Amino acid sequence: MKYFIALLCLSLSSIANTETLKKTSTSQVTQLHYQIIAERSHKPSLFTEGLIVKEGYFYESSGLYAKSMLVSYPIAEPASTWAKLSAPFSKKQLIPERYFAEGLTLLNNKLYQLTWQEGTLLIYDAISFNLLGTLNYKGEGWGLTSDGKQLIRSDGSTRLFFHNAENFDIEKTLDVSLNQQPIINLNELEYNDGFIWSNIWHDNRIVKINPTTGEVVSILDLSNLVQTLHLHDPESVLNGIAYDADKKAFWITGKQWSKIFLIKIN
Ligand SMILES: [Ca+2]
Description:
- By secondary structure, this protein is mainly β.
- It folds into two domains: about 1-30; about 35-265, Neuraminidase (6 Propeller).
- The protein has three helices and 23 strands.
- Strands 1-20-19-18-17 form a five-stranded mixed β-sheet. Strands 2-23-22-21 form a four-stranded antiparallel β-sheet, with no helix packed on it.
- Strand 4 and strand 5 form a beta hairpin.
- The protein is globular and about 50 Å long.
- The structure holds calcium ion.
- Calcium ion binds next to strand 3, strand 17 and strand 21.
């Protein structure tokens, strides 16, 4: 009987511990709210793999073999629908057919563009779009961002890689977790104000990650926004997040989407 009571106490205490853990972990991860404050057109021909904003312009990396490109275009667009649809890119750099372009970031007036399985980082002058050089890496390239010092890469796993910006050597890795569980398929990235924001491939949620611990601190669920687009291609997934310092808000888009949305997150 004594043994039974001891066992009962033990299991009750372990249930209590599990409950405490659940409460602690769910209370740590906050659900973020957002308001759409503006929207503009986005060419559905763009298979968005990387999106950034700098001084009134979008810079976008578009993927797929034999179709990949790097483009820039102004945030402000013409008023008429026809002009919106036909507006040319401000700059456009076609990528060699053997590369599938992926994540994109800007650091010290250079644009850095990943390739999916080609292990090649393409480096451009941010003004002219001239190719300055390439660097090699092992593994896949998915998302790319920068904290102003290092280049931060995702590869579709739960891990983020912090690279030296000069030689692309890996200086640190970070395993990302949500409620103590690994979270996989981390895709397009955006560093802002001390946190890393990440799209999750084939998921309508964006996660906000503590870059020191790897813990997801907040979740932004954009399911309602995605539904307004009535997308048909299963690959037309949410995959574009860019912080606009002028507007103090985030631009959001996805692969083959017809719109980019400006949202305030709170
Ligand atoms: Ca981005």
